[in-house]
Design a protein that fits this description.
about 350 residues, mainly alpha, two-stranded antiparallel ribbon, 2 strands
Length: about 350
């Protein structure tokens, strides 16, 4: 038992857990998505066999299936489940950063943390964990084809559009000798995942438009391109945030071949972001492999190793001074999800309800 625990623990783990809680709960401030009640109502629709919703979020069934599995009939209980599952996945993400060693904390300074904080109720938190695990496999260079297939299948089931984008981003980043293996097993994962999603949607008689069809609605691409072109620096910041300065330092101190991979993968992420209205949300998830590969490269830079403490201080300082900058229909520095009860009122209300008989 002790050896298993030691394998999980690493030097930065405690710091990473505390930092994750601080960033999500205090600095960015978590919020439930505005339409979370609609997703809750989907649980009852599935149970009754009559699906009224035509929204494409039905294609991402994580929280819906959990609600069906645990027979959740109360909206407050559903919100608690969403929050607790988010916490569990955040903990799993920090646990799986061990391979990045002393540089692991840098991953928490990137934009995905804002996304999972502001959009609690979307399946993004599981997407982050799966992208991390998939990228970790491609970096390790070990024979883990079945794991790659399994995780890519799960990622596709969870969010097939993100899986599709990350396929092209990782295709550029992986080493040449690994590329064929990556193509085969990640492609198969997408095939299996999309087949399973189709079976699921047919089984619940879903008749709405999928994500691909939504892209071709009137003005979607035009608006998406405008959001990116008019806020390009904000979009890039929203993906890398506190790590952006290290991206620049690494680019200056390394060869063009490595920088070329970074630039191409970045442009791919921006291209796919241009066909999605959730601009910074999609971008912050699609650049996760870029951030992880960059952090892995930092370990090989003598300049970074010798100045890591100073660069950490600089990254934290820049992050806290600039803060979250986000594009989601408009330029934002606070969560756009404020139509339902605040999380910070919801939790006290639940605790007061539970403790009413004792405190009175």
């Amino acid at each position: 038992m002790k050896s298993k625990i030691e394998k999980i623990l690493y030097d930065n783990l405690f710091v990473n857990i505390l930092l994750t809680i601080f960033l999500t709960h205090i600095f960015y401030k978590i919020s439930f998505i505005n339409r979370i009640q609609g997703e809750f109502l989907l649980i009852e629709q599935i149970k009754s066999g009559s699906i009224d919703s035509t929204q494409f979020y039905v294609e991402s069934p994580l929280f819906t299936l959990i609600g069906v599995l645990f027979d959740i009939n109360n909206f407050d209980i559903y919100l608690l489940f969403v929050y607790l599952i988010t916490l569990i996945f955040l903990f799993l993400i920090t646990i799986n950063l061990k391979f990045l060693e002393n540089y692991s904390t840098l991953f928490l300074l990137t934009g995905w943390v804002v996304t999972v904080s502001w959009f609690m109720g979307h399946v993004d938190i599981l997407s982050v964990l799966l992208i991390l695990l998939i990228t970790k496999i491609t970096i390790s260079k070990n024979d883990q084809e079945l794991k790659l297939l399994f995780f890519y299948t799960l990622l596709t089931i969870n969010h097939n559009a993100i899986a599709f984008v990350c396929f092209f981003v990782l295709l550029i980043l992986v080493e040449k000798e690994q590329r064929i293996r990556f193509i085969i097993f990640s492609f198969l994962g997408q095939v299996f995942g999309n087949i399973l999603i189709s079976i699921y949607l047919n089984s619940i008689n879903f008749s709405g438009r999928g994500r691909l069809r939504f892209v071709f609605n009137d003005n979607v691409i035009l608006d998406s391109v405008n959001f990116v072109s008019e806020n390009i620096f904000v979009v890039v910041w929203s993906g890398f945030m506190g790590m952006l300065i290290l991206q620049l330092v690494l680019s200056i101190t390394t060869d063009w071949k490595s920088n070329r991979k970074f630039l191409i993968s970045l442009l791919i992420s921006l291209f796919f972001t241009c066909i999605a209205l959730d601009t910074s949300r999609i971008f912050s998830l699609s650049v996760i492999p870029i951030s992880i590969y960059t952090i892995d490269r930092l370990k090989n830079s003598k300049f970074i190793r010798e100045n890591l403490s100073y660069l950490y201080i600089l990254s934290f300082t820049i992050l806290f001074i600039i803060g979250p900058r986000y594009v989601h229909g408009s330029y934002l520095n606070i969560s756009p999800n404020n139509e339902i009860e605040s999380f910070y009122n919801f939790i006290p209300r639940i605790i007061n309800s539970i403790m009413s008989g004792i405190w009175n």
